[in-house]
Amino acid sequence: MPYLADALLDDRHGTIISLEVTAGAKTDSFPAGYNEWRKTISCRVTAQAVGGKANRAVITLVSEKLAVPATAVTILSGSTNSQKRVLVAGIDKKNLLFRLQEIS
Prior knowledge:
globular; Conserved Hypothetical Protein Mth637, Chain: A; 104 residues
């Protein structure tokens, strides 16, 4: 899935992932697909988008799937939106893409 690279951006602290989050889904899933137009990776969480529950679920799911501590995952923008920019600290774009391809 080389197109996943289009949703990743190098940052001096790690890599930023452009996510499109579906809250209230039947199951948790990451990566759950790719939106070519928006260049976002889909992420589905069962938590509802109330009181930050979905954001916490996104952080937990992304950290588990990428095998990084939850403290390494930060929502940079979109905390009240379905489209989010998430920083995964300490991992460069190449390694993050490799991990995403391994779990896809």
